[in-house]
User: Fold this.
Amino acid sequence: MDKLQRGVKGVSIAIIALFMFIYGRLAWLQLVEQESLGSKSGSVRRIWMQAPRGNFFDRNGQLILENRALYTVKVIPSEMHESSVNLLAYLLEMPVDELKQSIDEARNFSPFAASTVYRDLDEVSMARISENLWQLPGVTIEVENKRKYNNLFTGTHLFGYLRGVTTGQLDTLAERGYGRDDKIGSTGLERIYEDRLRGEKGARFELVNPLGVLKGEYDKGKHDIASVKGDDMYLTVDAGLQSLAEKLLRQTGKSGAVVAIDPATGGILAICSEPDFDLDILNGSTRKQEWADIALSPRKPLFNRAIQAAYPPGSTYKLLLSIAALEEGAITPEQTIYCPGYFEFGGRKFKCHGGAHGTVNMTKAITVSCNVYFYKLMLQVGLEKWHDYGEMFGFGDREGIDLPGEKRGVLPSTAYYDRRLGAGRWTKGYLVSLGIGQGELNTTPLQLANFAATIANNGTWHQPHLVSGYRDTRSGTYVPLNYEERKLSVSQRSFDVVKAGMQGVVLQGTGTLARVAGVTVAGKTGTAQNPHGQDHAWFICFAPIENPKIAIAVLVENAGFGGSVSAPIARELINYYVNGKSRGENGYSDTKAVSTIKAVSDSLSSERPAKSHATVVDSSRVTTEEDPGD
Ligand SMILES: [Zn+2]
Assistant:
């Protein structure tokens, strides 16, 4: 009891002491602020100091996003002399009117605060201004930070970019400690993890004479407050794989997306969307013309297709229908359907591609992607059950990835058609299209990648994510992040049948271009019918079948058949990641990564795969015969 009381007393004293400290600090800061306000008679001024943002590391401990110095020119309008505006404009090589306007805006915000008028000074200009600071009262040069992007990959939609806080945003952001000159994560991970990445601002106190000219630090800098760097983020991404995915997708010359997932954890191994753009255009100061070109481009580089493009999944969705049919007992794996090359329903004739498939069971139907089989199967399963299984696997809803702007896609239900067309005013004809993944059904590349991952691991749905944890700068500890997972109630037998079909696709079906020497690959091609032009090509897969390390979805827009354009991209990614081939050719260094890992933390045990670099298999022997079509 005594012990407890002592403990309580101790805590109380600590709390009181803490409050006294905070009050004392506040009072002092206010005093300084007052002094600064009365700067006409010479005083102390406070300059806020930006904190460096947190760094990013990939799953192997490789540094993939850091900071570099950014020199900015700030002015304190109340201390500036009219005459020095011309000199400053001259030194900055900018029009006097433009500078005057910036200073006016700064004055409107606060005459006594230091506001940025020029960002991203080059070294020469910085030297020139530094030499002339003595005749520029109220002008300071600050060393801040801007992002330093890696030279391995672009990461446009992955990292995202920062934007300056606008006057409009300040109303709500000021209470969270943002100032007029601050930047804030606008897209990507920079936005989602803004609160961890931004760190805490510091402050410096300076003595200035009555003319506003700097006279040195105040009280030997004793009262300065050091900034606290933002937390470092640890990504599930493999830098080498990300680099390769971007390169392969870019080489198609088309728009599209690639998502690769670790089926064991839901960690994203690579994610990219084409077209993308150079994040440096928005780094430090915005390169206006280049930014305008991006924002107005008809190819929509700002659109993150990996999580925002929603198209019919085409034949990849036959796998979902297969699982629903098996689970609901609508068919057995051995039961066959006869394909004469077409299917007649409601007075219409739906064609199977590639002529008649004859007698097919489920495995064969998946392998050759027989439409007739799945038209008939869909009518047997029915919309309700088909919808329920889609929902179970996460279609029609966000996956919950840690990126902003994810789309839900569309998973039609009875209620959906009743709403759109009126109850009783639509026929089963709609089901025929859904049976082969066309029609109103829409999925994103992320959803299909995670679908492949869930099949790969036999029914454990993981919330896909990019950040496995962060290092708390203050405490120095690594904090793992937790993500949702759930076991789906689907029997192993169903997965086995579907996997056998998917293996057939790659061995002798529509996806032979995804064959990788020495690795068992399960895949499925898909073609999204596009009423506005050429069809979009899908390919989903995972490998190795017996111990899946990677699940992938590839989407290439307007590329026609999925097997010819999308499957080879998946093949290269599997070969890289599973076979360890071409490691080093993408600027990736194992030795460097290993040393960084040691330096980083021992607590980062979760997401790191034990990869073998020993097996290097020549993939040039892989055959590339003609595809029978999808
Ligand atoms: Zn057929």
